[in-house]
Amino acid sequence: MKLSENTENCKPEIANVCAPNGSSNDFQSRRVSKKKRTQRLYIVTTGLSNEDKSLVKSVVRALGSAKIEPNVTKNTTHVVTTGVRTINLLHGIIRGCWLVGLEWVLKSLESKEWLIPEDYEMAHFSKAVSENRKDRQLFGKSYIPELFTACGPMYIEKTTKIPFDALIDLVKAAGGCITNNPETAKILVGSGGLKETWILDCITSGELQSYNQYRHS
């Protein structure tokens, strides 16, 4: 009986030590949340004025745990943008980055830490913004964009209005295959085939667009 009494008397003390403010699961959740907030951020700015770009750089220096990149890469986590469609913004959509406005940066500065960007995500830009970002969060390093995977070889003419190399990089980043031989291509982009805006609109929407409205007349 004495042993049983001692065990019962110890239970409240153990509970208080392990979970002073709630359950052990709550405690673990707070630790995970804290860990996520301290992960290093890789930020690209696009479409911003030089003044706003400088502002973002100063906030990065002030808050730390972040690095400014000139262009979107597989490491980029956040793209700070005005919503103007640029090559970096399109790469951000493809790679499932957080697309956020300058407000996220300013609010983070006010809070003296990088805020969770969900409330500042530019999901209204297109459904692909949040869909790709969620896929990247789900699959992590295994996330591979597949938008153009089923299109077969693409041939892009070097006379396009948008820089040839930029279009090549976008297609490859979105899972596409490029050929240097127009005879073997299933899709030809340029004066003899589709307008290059077909590539941009497919990426923006996250869906392959019908060829009809993009054919050169």
UniProtKB/TrEMBL annotation:
**Domain BRCT: residue ranges:** 33-122, 143-216
Query: InterPro entries recorded for this chain?
Result: BRCT_dom, BRCT_dom_sf, Microcephalin-like
Q: Which domain of life is it from?
A: Eukaryota
What SMART domains does the entry give? BRCT (SM00292)
Pfam family of this protein, just one? BRCT
Ranges in a coiled coil: none
Question: Could you give a single Gene Ontology term from the biological process aspect?
Answer: mitotic cell cycle
User: Which PANTHER family does this one have?
Assistant: MICROCEPHALIN
Output this protein's name: Microcephalin-like isoform X3
Q: What is the lineage of its organism?
A: Eukaryota, Metazoa, Ecdysozoa, Arthropoda, Hexapoda
